[in-house]
Amino acid sequence: MKNQTVLILDFGGQYKELIARRVRECKVYSIVKPGDITVAEIKDIDPIGIILTGGPSSVYKEDSPHCDKEIFSLGIPVLGICYGTQLLAWSVGGKVEPCAVSEYGKTKMTVSPKCDLYKGMDKEQIGLMSHTDQITVLPEGFVSVASTKDCKNASIADKKRKLYGMQFHPEVESTPNGTKFIKNFLYEICGAKGDYNLKNLEGQLIEQIRNQVGDNHVLLALSGGVDSSVCAALLSKAIPGRLHCVFVDHGLMRKDEGDQIEEAFKDKDIDFIRVNAKDRFLKALKGVVDPEQKRKIIGAMFIEAFKIERDKLSDVKFLAQGTIYPDVIESGGSKAATIKSHHNVGGLPEDLGFTGLVEPLRGLFKDEVRKLGRQLGLSKEYVDRQPFPGPGLGVRVMGEITDEKLDILKDADAIFREIMIKNRIKSDQYFAVLTDTRSVGVVGDFRTYEYTVALRAVKTSDFMTCEYTPIPHKFLGLAASRIVNEVEGVGRVVYDITGKPPATIEWE
Ligand code: XMP
To answer: Strands across the sheet with 5-10, in order?
Structure first.
């Protein structure tokens, strides 16, 4: 059974994922495609509506991204957002020009509740504006359905042709009723039925997996992260007894994490293979201090360990991966995405001899993956874990990685995490780093010369930029005193207050 789908066309805006998620929150399936998609491809997707995203360009400039104008006469409802609304107006005969006064930030607007987009809503609304161009002449058939002090066409509509536009961003939280506007577009204009939900989705995914795999066996490289874990839980339900999970424990996981991963899967009907490879990894990393080299060695060692297990299971035909939708969107050629490509280290090589790839989570966002994981019986603590880099603590122990340094970091990190959780300090990612710097201290009458631990906690929504989390000083003080008292080898604790950019979240 196919879900109704809304097609989101990307014109380089940073909020395309957010738009797709908002649509799904309204119980309608959504996918993102490049703005230059062909009409034939659109017909193939058969969407109930099309949304054009924002973007940094000016529609009247020659190198700006455009779409096939036929899109506007297919009879499929269209909603343009920011640049998308200018593109819509410009494509059907309107005029777009630089603003006399550019608008940025939360802006008061007056909307027309007579328009289906704003049905049932108050006239006075707030919209997040961020534009330097605006529609100065409406295309034929269009009326203005919202205005601000400086922008008379803040939202436009041609009810007959089902073409709509919003100069502001309905997808962000700064537009308080934005999701309601999107919902109106979906339900009042596109005829959405609300047929997308995770309960149905689980059944659909299981059916797809069974159709694809038949009687064959599947091998999954389980990193222990949320995505591969949920993938394992789903596959174990779809093809019980025919899933082999290889968990390469490189010794660079957080304290006790390897055991927690094993524990999470003990009741599932899978062949769980834990490879204890810490000694091999540490041997290969001996004497290596360069961060990039460390990353490369860890990636290569991982593949080597996986290959050894793969050779033992040579009749397994399918490889499963926990690829999720943001990975798919990011590798779809958008300029904004390449920033993180270096993180996809350790991608499995092609010469492993599989005949098929199973990626059941390819269409899901992280929050959906987490909910699906809960539905499949993984615990809340397990699916809510923070992101953890592929090279693990290897990029949090500065300089050479040794057993001793790893133990120090694991203990310090566990204390810091315990304090953050117990005191309910909200932060999107937090961890300890073991710097390669020692400093002089005094304990009793003795001089000490021990390691410095750095604490890092950040606020971020996309992990591409961040600010530090303002942890109250009393908790920072508590973390410092507990770490120096309880962890042998640490003489000093500092807190990293750098944003990204210019720093990155990880230290290496
Ligand atoms: P940076 O350090 O680039 O990190 O600001 C951004 C986010 O990505 C995570 N990260 C990684 N994730 N493999 C991964 O899967 C990696 O090699 C890797 N390096 C960094 C980091 O923890 C943060 O959430």
So the answer is: 29-34, 5-10, 49-52, 78-81, 163-166, 155-158, 143-147, 95-111, 124-137
